[in-house]
Amino acid sequence: MTNKTVSRPPQGGEWITTGDENGMSVPDSPVIGFIEGDGVGPDIWKASKPVFDAAVKKAYGSKRQICWWPLAAGEKCFIETGMSLSDDTLQAITSARVVIKGPLTTPVGGGFRSLNVTLRQKLDLYSCIRPVKYLAGTPSPVLRPQDVDMVIFRENTEDVYAGIEWKSGTPQAIRIIDFLKKEMGVNLDPDSGIGVKPMSPTASKKLVRRAIKYALDNNRKVVTLVHKGNIMKYTEGAFRDWGYELAKSEFADRIVTEDELVTDYSGKLPEGKLLLNDRIADAMFQQALLRPKEYEVLAMPNLNGDYMSDALAAQVGGLGMAPGANVGDSVAVFEATHGSAPKYAGLDRVNPGSMLLSGVMMFEHIGWKEAGRLIRSAMEQTVRDKIVTYDLARLMTGATEISCSGFANAIIDRM
Ligand code: NAD
Predict the structure, then answer these.
(1) Does the first or last residue of the chain, that is N or C, have fewer Cβ atoms within 10 Å of its Cβ?
(2) Ligand 1 contact via 320 beta carbon (within 6 Å)
(3) Does 5 score more than 80 pLDDT?
(4) Cβ atoms of residues 40 and 350 within 8 Å
(5) What pLDDT, in 10s, does the model give residues 240-249?
(6) Is the minimum distance from the CB of 391 to ligand 1 under 6 angstroms?
(7) Which one from 282, 293, 369, 413 is the annotated catalytic residue?
(8) Residue bearing the bigger pLDDT, 4 or 255
(9) Cα gap 3→373, rounded to integer Å
(10) Is the CB of 130 under 6 A from ligand 1?
């Protein structure tokens, strides 16, 4: 894990610092790192940056501006330095604390398993945060997409994503199978592939703490622990138990459980309290479609969170409109959640919506909420006016199809 920092900020900017115990101290010219990314990354970044700058100017005049700091990672970095992700970049991210990134192609044939997973693990960005909210006018496959307004907190460092696995037939897999048989009395098919699913109270509680804090700070009323604990008792089931344990020890005066709601409060949540409940993952997928209004903040282990994020994003119009952030205790990396879509690279064609909405999250994170609101509402107006990129245009009637940068300019016009 890196914890080294770069001492001097780039010219024209100041570092975001830790500030008081409640969070960060953000100067008027904060340094914010950006990683353009691979494939369509430069297209969506070129389109998004002017939108971010225009929103800051509109909201704060000349009082505030962002000092954008280019950081190298991905294919271009590999060509220039022989590395896809260097220690210099990791140190720069640690110094900047706030970074926004485009998608990174996972190199094929060795090197990092995934640059994104590496970033999350090296910087201990333990929570993947995905707000899923409908932007009016966006084509959706469900009848009432406006009923979806949830924020997913997905644990980002453990679970089967820890990358501990051995291929069927390898000496390592055979050794583990042998160990399980001799030492634990467990019989597996001798040709099994093996994966390990580690989940700890430390990481689970950190994630649930963040989800509960978010809910309390943002006036949300329900936090749901989503797990598959009926089958995987000591990982997923334990996640649920650790979640309740944490809530009881740190938020006892603010939390009401589902049982308490019935026994102590006649089913009515008292003012100022937060309902903490839990759902088994498969049931939660059904609930998300049938009763989305009953859910607000979901705290989930890594794999469940991955599935749920994309499924919910689909309900509000797909990944092109889904923002995300990977957040640790001191560093936050905001990112377009789709991949690098290489066949569209350099065509100025794809939808920059995911990066733009990740920018909205970034502005909320640094407390520049007015700038975030301007982007969101101008984007909503643009979609309502049916001025959209190809991916949405083909699902709408009477839409005007526009380029990636054209969509961004239309948003700026509507601020
Ligand atoms: P992808 O998301 O790049 O593309 C799949 C398809 O989705 C595209 O062909 C396109 O039709 C559509 N699409 C994606 N983004 C769009 C946008 N902004 N606007 C409109 N349409 C869009 O998925 P993939 O092809 O599986 O992955 C390509 C590369 O991206 C891989 O190397 C993968 O590892 C990487 N990846 C990176 C991230 C990340 O950096 N966070 C996430 C997922 C995949």
Answers:
(1) N
(2) yes
(3) no
(4) yes
(5) 999 999 999 9
(6) yes
(7) 282
(8) 255
(9) 33
(10) no
Does 369 have pLDDT greater than 60? yes
Decide if 344 is catalytic.
no
Q: What one-letter code names the amino acid at 257?
A: T
Q: What's the predicted TM-score (pTM) here?
A: 0.91
- Do the Cβ atoms of 153 and 122 come closer than 8 Å? no
Assess whether 282 carries a catalytic annotation.
Answer: yes
pLDDT tens-digit readout, 138-181 = 889 999 999 999 999 999 999 998 889 999 999 999 999 999 99
Q: Is 306 a catalytic residue?
A: yes
Number of continuous H segments (helices) and E segments (strands) in the chain: 14, 15
Active site residue 228: yes
DSSP state of 107: P
Q: Is the CB of 306 under 6 A from ligand 1?
A: no
**242 Cα to the center of ligand 1, angstroms:** 35
Please give the structure tokens belonging to residue 405: 């940068």
71-75, 91-95, 171-175, 331-335: least confident range: 71-75
Judge if the beta carbon of residue 116 lies within 6 A of ligand 1. yes
> How far apart are the C-alpha atoms of 332 and 329, rounded to whole Å?
8
- Of 113, 115, 340, best ligand 1 pocket probe by most atoms within 8 Å of the beta carbon: 340
